Amino acid sequence: MTKSIIKLEDVWKRYNMGKAGGLTVLKEIDFDIKEGEFVAISGPSGSGKSTIMHLIGALDTPSYGDIYLKEENIKKIDKNSLAILRGKTIGFIFQQFNLLPTFSALENVMMPMELVNLPDNESRKRAEELLTQMGLSERMHHKPTELSGGQQQRVAIARALANDPEVIIADEPTGNLDSKTGFFVMDFLLKLNKEGKTIIMVTHEMELVKYASRVIYLKDGIVEKEVHKKQNIKSRGSLNKKYRRENF
Amino acid sequence: MKLSKSFKIALNIILHSKLRSWLTIIGIVIGIAAVIAIVSIGQGAQRNLEQNLNSLNPNILTVSPGFSRATGAGGEFRNFGGESRGGSGGSTAKNLTVSDVTALKGVSNVLYVMGTVSGTVSQVSFLGKTSRASVEGVDPAVWKNFETTGLASGRYLSQGDVNVVVVGGGIANNVFSGMETNRQISIGGQNFRVVGILQQTGTGGGPGGGSDDNRIFMPIENAVTILEGKDKKTFDDITIKINDISITNETVTQITNILMMSHGILQASKQDFSVQSPTSIQQRVTSTLSSTSTFLTGIAIISLIVGAIGIMNTMFTSVLEKTREIGILKAIGAKDRDILTIFLLNAGIIGLIGGIFGIVLGIFASGYIAELSGTSLGGGGMGRMLSSAYVSPTLVIGIFILSVAVGLIAGAIPAYRASRLNPVDALRYE
Q1: CATH code 3.40.50.300 for A35-61+78-247
Q2: Given an 8 Å threshold on Cβ–Cβ distance, is A115 in contact with B337?
Q3: Among candidates A219, A208, A181, which has minimal Cα distance to A39?
Q4: Of A199, B122, B285, B288, which has the fewest beta carbons less than 10 angstroms from its beta carbon?
Q5: B349 within 8 A of B407, measured Cβ to Cβ
């Protein structure tokens, strides 16, 4: 039986708004994500998608309930250990790319490895390999401002893979990309999933949802429905072709 | 994260906000330069003072007009005070007379007594060159018994001398080159024959001893005709040479009692003169210098604090500007400690660069101020005392550490706040 890599138990998230009172953005969230799954979290704007992504990514802690990352309750881990766990276990791909603007593509990709004290020569070698894999071997010494949106997102993917994490969390990964680059990104996520990585994608685009093996629909901070798809990786590959046909 | 990487990121932050960083660095440069200049001039003055005090003749006591209860001493500290007379009480009384000199000759333990007048003459000419110099009118019969500076050439003044001078080594060698005995020198429009040149000692001198480098000695009969407002029956000082220094205090008491009787003074509070021994002079000058140094160092520290506030302000702005990047770093695995280190190093680098430039500027400034003091304050004691700055290696190292510490302390709060940022809030920051 496949092990849970992320598990949410009765998770609530409430923001204190001062005199205006509080705002509950997530309620009674219960689900777990198995190793090697491709899960899409979808829902309309304000449904709590981003909040749940931050919680799953151990960037935030729940107001109530527990979140387990590799069977460790993130509420009970000290901040430093959580940062190390996050750095080694999770790779983030953001809609806004979120690259460090004053560093080159290579330095951006090296950064997560340097944060876990990987030797310089090893991190440089791996960063170069990843950027080459992303088709950016000629652009690795360029700053993010000197790269196109698609190139920046590919740098961001390379960075997300730097520490060979088990989980990739992608927040609207094609949101700022043209359809061709968007396809490349989705194709790459599928490839990673096929290689055994757990992919969690937050999106409101119904076309992208089709790539996932499971979709969790949120509405007003609660899980409205959960859809398990039967397609295997291979059959989901046909979605690529369909997506390609529809977009080209 | 390795320290070298944190350093690289910190440097990167500075390089990408050059103008703001340099403006902040200038604040620190000014603060550090002020501290270096003030402390080095203070140390230079202290060294001069120590040399001067060490050369004080312990056998010599000086009686000066005026009295200050606050200091317990008054009168002129002639080698430092230059022309200022009358003591710390501010008195300019001319109440030391020939009869006082006569009375003091009867005190046991007193070997010699001499009344002197002194002042600065602006027109001292030799071979077409004119300068200003301190002139001292002495009793030629006994002066050589007080003089501790050896002769480079010629002789001391002796009884019966008129229109002759003995010149300090500094004047003979530095102010007027080529001076020899038996040459004529014009002082205040009158011609004198140089009968002796003293050895150059290089120190500032002190009452009754020390360097006479920048002084010209002549019979008091001649001095009163050159120095304005002087007469040969009233003295600026009475200098006394004693025999046994182990009973200096008792001798001072005796001298005081005799002068009080001579001046018709019954209460110590009405005393119009002061008797100074080398010890009392040393205490007074050291105390004054220490107070002045403390005051000036306080001013310098205030400017350093202003610089530190500048760093803090820059760091807060930098943290605000880098909020999103802090969020990104945290999302990819940076620990609070990593962020803290980066911003502390950022502030430390500002302090370090400010320190280096500040030290260099401070050394130049102290040299310039010292030169300016020496020139503008003339050959007087204060000018001489401030005319050399001493920048010790300890001072440079200390100030360097201080500047980095100021940077780190000023950057501590902003760096801590940066490290405590919630990654989600930081990532959302626009």
Answers
A1: yes
A2: no
A3: A208
A4: B122
A5: yes
